[in-house]
Structures are given as C-alpha cells and as structure tokens.
Amino acid sequence: MAILPEHDCTILAEVCRQARLSRDARFDGQFYTGVFSTGIYCRSICPASPPHEKNVRYFDSPIKAANHGLRPCLRCRPDSAPYSYAWIGTQTTLQRAIKLIDNGAMAGESALSVEQLSDKLGISSRYLVKLFTQFLGTSPKKYALYQQVMFAKTLLHQTALPITDVALASGFNSIRSFNDTFKQALQLTPTSLRKSLSKASIDKSDKTVQTVSTDMQSNHQNTYQRDVINTRASITLKLSYRPPLNWQAMHDFYHLRQVANMEWLADEIYGRSFNLNGVKGILQLKHIETKSLFELAVSFVEPTDSRYLAAVVNAVRKMLDLDADMLTIEGQLKSIKAIDISAVALKPGLRIPATFSVFEAACRAVLGQQVSVVQASKLLNTLVEHYGESITLGQQMFRLFPTPEAIGSASLDELKMPGARKLALNGLGNFVHNSPQSSPLDWLDVKGIGPWTVAYAQMRGESQSNVFLSGDLVIKNRLKALCDKSATSIETAKQYQQLADQVAEQAAPWGSYLTFQLWSAE
C-alpha cells in the first residue's frame, strides 16, 4: 500500500473524521476528504458510504487534494461546496489575490498575467508565487485554471449548456485549451463527463424557469400581482452554503428596502435586475433550507453574455454572504467582554445582506441620512423610477439601478430632500463615473460623503466583514442600553467612544455581523 501524505488541514483530523461520518453540513467547504483507495476527494456531506479512516487524509482546499492526484467526487461534487478561506489565516494579500482570481481576473479575453496581477496587488510576482506555493502548493496560474475547470464541471453537472458555451462561461478562449486543461485536471474530457451523467442529473429548468407570482411594492407602498421570471433564456445553478442561515431576517431586510420593478420577493424567493460592468439581466433565488442551498436562475439581456456567468455567480454569493462561517463568527461575538453580550439574543445565521454593487450601497446610504428606513425606501424608488434604465425580458419590463453617469448628470428634482444631499449624489456619481476603479475610501474627497456613508458602502457594497458602525444612532442606543442593564454609566462622548473602540476590537474581524445583530436586537 502506498504511503499516504501527512494531514494537511487547519482543522484537527479527529474533528474532520467526526464531521464526515455525521455528514455535518456546518463543515461543508471547510475541509475535503481525500480517499486514496479510490483516488477521489469529497465534501463533508458526501452521501456515499464513508471509507475507512486508514484510507483517507484531510485537506483544507480542493487544490491541495488535486495536487496529490485526486479527482473530485461525482456524487457530492466538491465544485459545488461553499468557499472557505479560513486556511489562509492573516494573509490579506493572498486573500485579495484569490478574490481577484475567483472573480475572473486571470480568465477570458482580458486575462491578467501573473506580473499584471502582482502589479495590481502592489507586490512582486516572485512574492505572489511564493504565497501561493506556501499556502496552496501551486502557482497562481494553475490555481486560476483549476477554478475555471471546477466551475465548468458545475455547469456540466447542473445545466444543459452546450460544451462550447460552458468553455466560454468558464473563462477559456478556445475549446482545445478547455478540453486539454479539463482532462489534465480531472482525468476525463468534458464530453465524457457529460455522457457519464444520467439524464436526471441535468437540470432541464435552465431552458424554462417556472413563473412565480409575487407581490411587488409600488412607489406608494401599494402591491400588485406580477409574473417574475418567465423567459426561455434562463440558466439555473445551485449555490450551497454552510448552515445556519437566517433567511427570514435577510428576507425581511430586503423586503423593507425593496425597489419596485428592480426587486421582488415571495416567501422563499428574492429576485432583482442587475448591471455588472455593462452585462445586464435579471436573477432570481429560491431558498431550499432542507438542502442548505439556493437555486439561482439567471437571464441575460444579451444571450452571448452568458460567458460572464461566473462573475454573476460570484456577485450573488457575495450579496447573500453564502461563504460565511457562522459558527466561527458567532463564537467570536459571544466572547465579547466590553459589554454584556449575553443580554443580546444573538440570532443564529444572521449574515450581511449586501447590495449587488458598492455604488448602489453608497446611494442607499446617502438617501438614508437623517430619515427613516421607510422614507429612504420611498426616495430610492423615486430615484430608480426616474433615472434607472429599463430592460425587457420575457415580455416583462424591469428597471436597473441608475449608473454613476446617470446619477452624476441628474437634476434629482423629483427627490424631496435637502439640496446638499442631492449635490452629494451628483458628486458621487461623477466621481465613480470618472474613476470606476476607486474604492469607498476615495469617495471621502466628494463633498457630502462622510465616514458613515463610506463604512456603510464597505459593509453592504463590498461585504467587508469588520465594519462596526459605532457612529450609527441605533448602535449607540443599543450599546448604551446594554451598559444601563449592567449598571455601567456612559455619560460623555469620550466614554462612549472608548467603549465602542473596545467592542470593535473584541468583535474583530467580525464587526459587520455585530452591527447587524445590534440592529436586529429587540
């Protein structure tokens, strides 16, 4: 018998063993089981009969398992597991690199080279290669190609897209390179994989998505029945997550802030239009709690834009915070000592309900200054109605969120709010239009855009995990109420800031989750 490699996972081997034997979905994507007797690697939830412990080793990333010659299991499909970057530790540069690669920076016609990616990160290509070799045991280019292959495998499993379309959607520029890379990584060709799948395993609903009737909110808070997605051009995929996920809280958050003709909700449904760097369409998500996943249906205005499907999927995962490790996050929040956190009934699975773009989050923040959520929602509906582009899919009209260019040149006369805030919106739109690669921190140069707006955009637009909005009025009141319960007096602004700084330090790096917990506290 061949000698098996050493344990290569940040999670203890005994914990991994118990998780795989119990098929614990809370560990899905956090480790992968390499089965050397069969030459495959699996997720913790694999439905196959568990192999003997003597034949397995555990890895904290699929690329590490692949480096040992293992191929992904065809039953549990590791390509469908939630992402997990816990094994990266504090390597923020590596996190940024992986995020860029996962978003397609090294794929497609405009793919960056290793040198170009390094320049974008502000480091040398030699150091970037060293980071990947140290933590993943592979190069940036090989990692990027493997991610493309795994996404292609997902499309082959879950859709009936032609193999040529699968190749393009996965970031390959030619069928030949796609076939060669796929075979080298998975030891079989795309065609043979597609043929090996039973007809039942291919989701035929990517051709026709059932119509859903739901309520949509008008500008005057009236509702009416409307068919949502009813087009033959939709592609459907399944997006897994690690439980718990508090869908009701996320649903209620989106519902209170929804925009007519741009968003729609039903009991287990959330849908919206999107504009991703000029790629326009609509998406709809259906929550299936029993399987810890969402069914995603995507329709593009231009069918050829399906080659950008991976970017849309990544944006959706970020929007719903599907890759959060809630057990780790909630464990950290429960350990906060600066306040009596036990007095807060922490809601399990409460995640960051993000916007589709960071610019949208910033506009929502500006419109929400010094007004209630309901009033801010009315302003937002008016903004989208008058300045959002309309698109038509399946004989239905939808509104897109206004572009920075449209906001920059808008009169905004329809909005009943102070002129200073209108000028702030104009200034923000012009700044982002002229500097599309700018970050929220850069927007502080715009008159009327302050730290709170920037922090809100970072939290809901960029899905940053460590944004504790201590300057928010609701957060202030909640922290002071907790102090009152523990007989601690907070009488001055300096005392409050000292407390807030302690709370933020102890909640790090999960300050955003504490913000939402306090917002939702009774």
Task: Describe the structure concisely.
The chain is α+β, with helices and mostly antiparallel strands and 522 residues long.
Describe this structure in words.
It is a single chain. The chain is an alpha+beta fold and 522 residues long. Helices cover 41% and strands 13% of the residues. The protein has helices at 13-21, 62-67, 92-102, 114-121, 125-136, 140-158, 163-169, 175-186, 190-196, 247-256, 309-319, 326-334, 358-367, 373-387, 404-408, 419-434, 451-461, 473-485, 493-507, 511-520, and strands at 32-35, 40-42, 56-59, 71-72, 213-217, 223-227, 235-240, 263-265, 269-276, 279-288, 293-300, 390-393, 396-399. The longest helix has 19 residues, at 140-158. The chain starts with 12 loop residues before the first helix and ends with a helix. The relative contact order is 0.07.
Features:
522 residues, alpha+beta, five-stranded antiparallel beta sheet, four-stranded mixed beta sheet, 41% helix, 13% strand, globular
- Could you report the average pLDDT, rounded to the nearest whole number? 89
DSSP strand content: 5-15%
The DSSP helix count reads: 20
How far apart are the first and last residues' alpha carbons, in Å?
60 Å
Overall 3D shape: globular
Topology:
Layout: H1 13-21, E1 32-35, E2 40-42, E3 56-59, H2 62-67, E4 71-72, H3 92-102, H4 114-121, H5 125-136, H6 140-158, H7 163-169, H8 175-186, H9 190-196, E5 213-217, E6 223-227, E7 235-240, H10 247-256, E8 263-265, E9 269-276, E10 279-288, E11 293-300, H11 309-319, H12 326-334, H13 358-367, H14 373-387, E12 390-393, E13 396-399, H15 404-408, H16 419-434, H17 451-461, H18 473-485, H19 493-507, H20 511-520
Parallel strand pairs: 2-4
Antiparallel strand pairs: 1-2, 1-3, 5-6, 7-11, 8-9, 9-10, 10-11, 12-13
Helix pairs in contact: 4-5, 13-16, 13-17
